[in-house]
UniProtKB/TrEMBL annotation:
It comes from the Bacteria. Residues 1-22 form the signal peptide. It comes from Actinokineospora soli. InterPro entries: SsuA/THI5. Residues 362-375 have a biased composition (Basic and acidic residues). This is ABC transporter substrate-binding protein.
């Protein structure tokens, strides 16, 4: 708001009666994003890397004569983005569902000076990949084993919300939550100063992939939908509706790029975040590949689908003494989303058939070949093991869905079960124990034993 007014005042010193969008003026757009949060890449890391927003602004500048400057500010979680938006220092921000609700609750009394949710970047039908991890040598087997311990979490984040609801459902009390940023919490877990870490994707996966942690609990066990989205300051949206429209169109461009070539998009994101190979392609490749594992689905900037989750989130926030006086669906502004459909981007293509049917868990097996720049699907977990054996050492990473929840996970860190001639994978040992208890004769195996037993 202050920047727009300053630009307006500067313009009036040379040309009386000019507005902020008049020729010769300059407008700065500040975007808050989270480079370590994969679920917001189409409004953050990937969008910035591809430059789609800047390209659209260049076209807009040619039509209006206004110069547009984009400043990208990286944050560890959504909470500081909310604080900066309240202070008028960030115009557009992307974050998870819990931070979104906190954002709305803290700005709802500001009226036209508040914020509004305008799009969704991704959603999970079951809340998967918000996880609780423990050290590899931890004796904890279930959440009940965390009683009387200290758990690191970023209070107000999606990972914190998953922890609170999971502990409530399990009836576990006397757990101390240490409010820490994800990187600080990861260091604390490795140092042994906390017993567990509860965080949003992709921090738990990074630690497990690096053999620095073991998965204890996956949020998909809750079965509560989650989402990530974009919010904008109302003053910015009111003064510059054309900029908001171009941002949403650029977000759609990035989403379509991800759908068209998910592996290339994952590699771009990995390089921007300086992450090792094999850790990123897990998260955001499902829709393009016509599989529907239930942990995370990339979304175009359309209406949020996780409405059942909003009620659970509001109840959680009420427990934290933050009443929400309006419903989650009332916080969304549909007008910019309608306008952004008028100009499809260069990667747009019809999506007929992508939602033809919902596949059951167990149809998300994939292996990424080392150095070949491609991935190969497998029909079943058993076939995936056979394909890995046939490839020898040429597999960079392999992913398999949890047999219960559908959450896609690293094959070499999954808990495997042999049930007759079939091999099933589970993200946690607790899930594997439930299956073996219900299926006499089923046998729990580690990854190496499963590969050996599967053969070629």
């Amino acid at each position: 708001m202050k920047r727009a007014i300053a630009a307006l005042l500067a313009a009036t010193t040379t040309t009386a009666g000019c507005s902020a969008s008049a020729a010769g003026t300059e407008v700065e757009i500040v975007i808050g994003y989270q480079s370590k949060t994969i679920n917001t890449v189409t409004a953050g890391t990937l969008l910035r890397k591809l430059g789609f927003f800047e390209k659209r602004l260049a076209d807009l500048s040619a039509r209006t004569g206004t110069k547009y400057t984009v400043t990208w500010q990286d944050y560890a979680t959504g909470a500081p983005i909310t604080a900066e938006m309240i202070a008028g220092k960030v115009d557009i921000g992307s974050m998870g569902d819990f931070p979104l609700l906190i954002n709305g609750s803290r700005t709802q009394d500001k009226g036209d000076e508040g914020t509004r949710m305008v799009s969704v970047t991704g959603y999970s039908a079951t809340g998967g990949l918000n996880m609780v991890v423990v050290p590899p040598d931890s004796p904890a087997k279930t959440l009940a084993d965390l009683k009387g311990t200290t758990v690191s979490a970023s209070v107000g984040s999606a990972g914190h919300g998953t922890l609170v609801r999971a502990l409530q459902r399990a009836g576990v009390e006397d757990v101390t939550v240490e409010n820490q940023q994800p990187s600080i919490g990861a260091s604390a877990l490795q140092a042994g100063s906390v017993s567990a870490l509860a965080q949003f994707v992709a921090w738990p996966g990074m630690l497990v992939h690096g053999k620095q942690a073991r998965l204890l609990y996956d949020g998909s066990a809750l079965g509560i939908p989650t989402l990530h989205g974009v919010v904008v300051r109302k003053p910015f949206a009111t003064e510059h509706p054309d900029l908001l429209t171009e941002f949403l169109r650029a977000q759609l461009d990035a989403t379509e790029y991800l759908h068209a070539d998910p592996l290339a998009a994952a590699e771009r994101g990995r390089r921007d975040r300086a992450r090792p190979r094999g850790r990123v392609p897990l998260q955001r490749t499902e829709r393009h590949l016509h599989v529907r594992p239930r942990h995370q689905t990339p979304s175009a900037p359309g209406p949020p689908r996780g409405r059942p989750a909003a009620g659970a989130h509001r109840r959680h926030q009420a427990a934290r003494r933050r009443r929400l006086h309006r419903r989650h669906r009332g916080e969304r502004d549909r007008r910019p989303r309608r306008r952004r459909h008028h100009q499809p981007g260069p990667h747009h293509r019809p999506r007929r058939g992508l939602r033809r049917r919902r596949r059951r868990p167990g149809h998300g097996e994939r292996a990424v070949a080392r150095g070949r720049g491609r991935d190969a699907p497998a029909a079943t977990p058993t076939c995936l093991l056979k394909n890995i054996n046939a490839a020898g050492g040429e597999v960079r990473a392999a992913y398999v869905p949890d047999a219960e929840t559908g959450t896609r996970w690293f094959a070499d860190h999954a808990v495997w079960v042999r049930d007759g001639a079939d091999f099933l994978a589970f993200t946690t040992a607790d899930g594997a124990r439930r299956h073996t208890a219900a299926h006499p004769g089923a046998q729990v195996l580690d990854y190496a034993a499963a590969l050996k037993a599967a053969g070629r």
